[in-house]
Amino acid sequence: MEAPGEKANFKFEIFRRLLEHPRMSEIIYPRSPRETMDGWGYLPRYIDKIRLHLAGKLHADYTDNFGKGFDGFWLKAAGVTHEQMIGVVKNSITDGEVCDWVRKNVKRTAAEKATHWQDMSSRPLADDAAAIARLKMRKEQCGGAHRDDVKTFVDAIDLDEKRI
After folding, report:
1. Residue 108 carries which DSSP code?
2. Single pTM value for the model
3. Is there a contact between 54 and 86 (Cβ–Cβ < 8 Å)?
4. Angle at alpha carbon of residue 13, lines to 11 and 16, rounded to 5°
């Protein structure tokens, strides 16, 4: 027969071991920038980053550009602020609720959304030497310097996060 509390201690020990398991400390990747929601490329990734941030699980690799970089490109195209989006995601349970808010509050045509995605998915621009050098560095950092198929930052993100 178990002593009182022994079962609880056993459960705690199992939970502790799971948390300390090497796989549990791995980065939780947001969705690919190629994922879409309501015609918006990148939006699902940004929502994932917000949810991870709110849960205290956004990896340090993402914090410097949180709300900036590609997040900022989406925010500018949509005409909303980072703080607004954090509030929307914080007050929603599902992606569907976020999507409903975007449909109601972000009035952009399909052509505008497509132009936004084309701009994001074609970076670095051919005349931006600094961005081209940054892409080269990012490819090297994630072990893909030899990958000629990785031509954009979107490609590099998917490479780094082991999707391609």
Report:
1. -
2. 0.83
3. yes
4. 110
